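User: Can you predict the 3D structure of DUF3243 domain-containing protein? Sequence below.
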Amino acid sequence: MSVLDNWDQWKDFLGERLHQAESEGMNHNVISDVAYQVGEYLAAQVEPKNEQERVLAELWKVADESEQHAIANMMVKLVQHDH
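Assistant: Sure. Here are the predicted C-alpha cells for DUF3243 domain-containing protein:
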C-alpha cells in the first residue's frame, strides 16, 4: 500500500519528511521550494488516490504559479500543525 492511498498516511509521511528537513537545518524558503517541486511532480506524474488528493490536483491545475506556491506552503503548514 502506497502512502498516497490514504490521506492521513500521506500527511504523516509529509510531516515526517518536513521534520527531518527541519532537523537537518533546511530553512523555510528551501522547504517551501521543495514542497512546490513535489506538487509539480505529483500533478504531472501521479494519479490522485483519494478525494483529498483529487481536490488538491484540481486546484493545482487551475492555479497560476504563485497560487501553486501558496498551495504548497499551506500543505507545509498543515503537516506542521499535525506534528
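Residues 28-45 form the longest helix (18 residues). The chain has one domain: 3-82.
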